[in-house]
Amino acid sequence: MKQYVADFGLLIVGILWGLGFVFVKIGLNTGINPFYLSALRFLVGGILFYLVFLKKMKKFRKKDIVAGLVVGIFQFFGYAFQTYGAMLTTASKNAFFTSINVIIVPYIFWILHKRKPKAMTFICSVICVIGIGVISFDKNLNLSDINFGDILTIISAIFFAFQIATTGFFSRKVEPLKLIFLQMIFAGILFVINFFIFSNPGEISDLKGMALISVGYLTIFSTIVPTLLQTVCQKFTTSTRASLLMSTESLFAPMFAFFLLGEVLSLKVIIGAGIVLFSIVLSEI
Asked: Which sequence ranges are marked TM in the entry (predicted)?
């Protein structure tokens, strides 16, 4: 595969993930329970992923299961906080704040691999915090422009950073395809358990209309297809280019949110988001 083809494939991943933020919001707007939505997304997605790679899914070892469980737990908490955050904030801000996981990952690698991040990483972290501050503080330096949904999303970014870091850690020890499958299944199971603990089982209902479209998109086009594209395309380009191309989800999410949800960003949020995205791009160069 040519590098430009692989790069285009990874750009598609960014587009699909960006649109995924909108479909999460669309699904939640129909009244579907967040745990129910995520459980369907990962369990159905995991089963479909298993069927696609059936020949490579034999003989799961103990270390495969342990790795899948660890990463799956971080994936569960990441998506749980992100999805509940999406209920209380806009799809655009949900995407912007989720993207800061890129800045957090090097620090987790520092803990796991005892390798101190480069000086540029610290600089990018400061720039990122400044961007979040521009979005969050008003002219009197009060946190009036950040809501509880934004805070939940920032917490989700921390868990996503741990998911990314532990995935990188375990992918050297187990087969990546098995790791992807197991983390999806474990995350899905955790969503089912939490649904029955914290929600009313009566909220389980037949999916129809926009709820069905939302779950269908998130399962196939925001989970299965991006995972397949990432798995195939990342081998034919550099890790830096791959990270940058996939991080475009934060650019596409507000565009789709504007056209499909009618979300309009204030100038202050646009400037702050621009600073955050600049820090992310700078950290990958």
From this structure: 7-28, 34-53, 65-82, 94-112, 119-137, 149-170, 177-198, 210-229, 250-282
For residue 130, give every residue at least 6 positions away whose Cβ sits within 8 Å of its Cβ, in sequence order, or none: 275
| CA–CA distance, 157 with 277 (Å, rounded to integer) | 14
Helix (H, G, I), strand (E, B) or coil at 210: helix
- How far apart are alpha carbons 98 and 198 in whole angstroms? 24
Q: Which amino acid is at 21?
A: F
How far is 282 from 124, CA to CA, in rounded Å? 7
Query: Which pTM value belongs to this model?
Result: 0.87
Say how many residues make up the chain.
285
278 touches 96 (CB < 8 A): no
Q: Tens digits of per-residue pLDDT, 46-83? A: 999 999 888 888 888 999 999 999 999 999 999 999 99
Distance CA 143, CA 129 (A): 14
| Interacting residues of 162 by C-beta distance below 8 A, sequence separation 6+ | 74, 78, 108
Helix residue spans in 89-175 (DSSP H): 91-98, 101-113, 119-136, 148-170
Report the amino acid identity of residue 160: F
